[in-house]
Amino acid sequence: MQLSEYDLGFRFKKNTFTVSGLMDRYEEGGISLYPDHIYSKPWSNRAKSIFIESIIVGMPTAEIWCEESGYGEISVLDGTQRIQSIIDFCKNNFSLSSLKLLPGLEDSYFEDLPYRFKSTFLNRAELYFTIISYDTHPSLKFELFKRINSHSRFPVQAARNFAFRDHFNFIRHTQEHCEDIIAPEEHFNFLSPRIGYIQAANYDELFLLISALTLSINDEIEANQPYEDFLDAAAMTIHFRSVGTDALLSDIIKYLGRIKRALGKKILFDTSFSSARRRMLSTRLDDLKLTSSQIADLYILALRHEINHASVGDVIETGRTKLPMRSSRYYYRQLFG
User: Fold this and answer.
1) 5 lies in some domain
2) What's the CA gap between 60 and 248, in Å, rounded?
3) Nearest CA to 38 among 17, 71, 66, 13?
4) 163 and 74 within one domain
5) Locate the GmrSD restriction endonucleases N-terminal domain: which residues (predicted)?
6) By C-alpha distance, which of 21, 79, 77, 87 is closest to 52?
7) Domain limits for position 290
8) Cα dihedral 175, 178, 183, 187 sign
9) Model confidence pLDDT, tens digit, residues 266-317
């Protein structure tokens, strides 16, 4: 997407908070630490303690990246665990441990801190925030989120969910409407937040791919482009389209319904990660577990009005032995070749 000169302006502001000011903002509900498109690995008490110690002795802390809504609420993009550590310590949820600079505070809770340390912690230390304005162009937010997470193995779909919120809402709305046709094989793994987060992002990406294939067959986006660009184009089209998405939702329900009728059973999305497991096909009662690649191939057959028992069997059997194909022109060839 070509941005105008105005759109290219990345709008943000710098701000500083004391710990006391941060806690006031949090207690008022002005800070969202865990928006649904963000994952942040929880810190150990040792890591929290070292961070708290750094604040008490006056060390500068890393910048915290946030986005501000039109109503002034802040969503944390990078720095969640630093803020969570402060909140947990102020609420006496853990005691300090493994301290190197202030061993005299070992095993101390917040309420145990001597006055001078407590005062320094609350009122003198400064936390540095970069707050992105709500009216910054979504494409710039998308690029920023990818870049500040470039050091980690985060799903690119998480960046799309953050930047293109109307697309994200559409994807989740579509999942709800299709839950009688397709669903994850099991609830996302909330015992392991990172795995559950990746599973949810993968399921979101599947529905974005289905949307992209539908938009492409309707000549609304170009399929002859690299896979990630194909998905980005679909996300932006859904987010920026000036009319409603009811027709797209209706098409998706229709074509997924054709798959279910051809299979004779509900589809379960395979949430496993290992290549070995992805090669396997398993059944549970009246449901059928399929990978993202298999579901996409079946969906293309439905779009081309070529879905039948024989073609379905070919896709399922191929999925036993072949890893997902995501070459830059794969879906174009499948749709139009």
Assistant:
1) no
2) 50
3) 66
4) no
5) 43-151
6) 87
7) 155-336
8) positive
9) 998 987 643 334 444 444 446 788 888 899 999 999 999 999 888 888 888 7
